[in-house]
């Protein structure tokens, strides 16, 4: 047997407290070569035990098989099941010197070795890898940056959506220290102000005011007052300086200027702060050469009748260095213009068209980059999609495609891991006739071209016995062609 598939994992599959059967679509030679992981809502993971928690079917089948968790119970709606190839790192095939040669024994050993390679490849896909052209200095800087981030992790725990990618905040911390210094001077000015009431005849107090007047002037330059929008210049028209302050009366929060923009000083999470952090996150992702990936996000038809909705499974992905995750299944309706959320419309523009191929793309909300959605379009490139206001389409984020029939309904299909199969064959040509002395008539047979697909073309060719063969030709037996 050959190992032609590079897939070595299936899932994660979301639970529903009912389903106990979950598919895997890769070859295993032994039921012990499968690792089953249950993940809970808090992120804890449990490796399930064979026989005690689940049973395996399909061992030895190149197309894979399934597990049944009935013994351990169905996973709940806040749990997921992931299946991984788990071949032991041992070599159990023994070949005796000048002994009999068994091709099957050699091939089995090579198959197991190839599966170990796939297993290691899957683990490397989940690892952070630096660029092969990185210098030792750049790698050291990256490590130091991660260590600085670890030292301030408690200060950013409220930003759970981007906590793993927040860069070191050393520059902001320095400016906060500057603000603290200015705040102490303000308190000193307040004390002096009380004394200036009795300036007449109090020479000592006047001298104290004179000694602190420079501090008052400095603070007047730094603090720009209250405003509903971020200032772009100082009060005197000069350029903003690092450490400048103003009070945002819309957010009811102080902000400090850090060179790249205004940052809240009170720990509040705002859209502007999230945007700054996302820019830093994407920059770190680019420096780490973090690869794009898709986990889950499998589209399948909804059970409704008529078939006008798709269910897209939970999962996460990164496209062009931009990350997004979906905690649960999202249902989108093809017969309505796009609207956000589950059971919202699906179409980017116009009404649903009959007998067309639609493509599914991933959206991310600009004001909150932890919120994602999906959109369907006739365009087969993301640049051709009509994007809703306030959202961005992630680059090259097509996760699947589907067909509509003559009634503008979805042609039924089922996606298994990386394979897509139609529920019923699509028959577009039932017969044609050979007419000599005429140019041949080409016949076009179209199929959907999803990101993950498998097409099967069955062509049955037969001759007619009710008419003689044309002059110069002979009748051949009936035969079939499968591609």
Number of discrete helical segments: 5
Stretches where pLDDT falls below 50 for ≥5 residues?
A: 450-454, 478-483
> Could you tell me the mean pLDDT?
80
Give the termini distance in whole angstroms.
20 Å
Structural class: alpha+beta
The fraction of residues assigned to DSSP E strands is 15-25%
Shape: elongated
What profile does the largest beta sheet have?
4 strands, antiparallel
Global Rg: 33 Å
Order of strands in the sheet with most strands: 1-7-3-4
State the share of residues found in helices, binned by percent: 10-25%
What is the tally of beta strands?
Answer: 26
Explain this structure to me?
With 483 residues, the chain is an alpha+beta fold. It has five helices and 26 strands. The longest helix has 26 residues, at 170-195. The radius of gyration is 33 Å and the shape is elongated. The two termini are 20 Å apart.
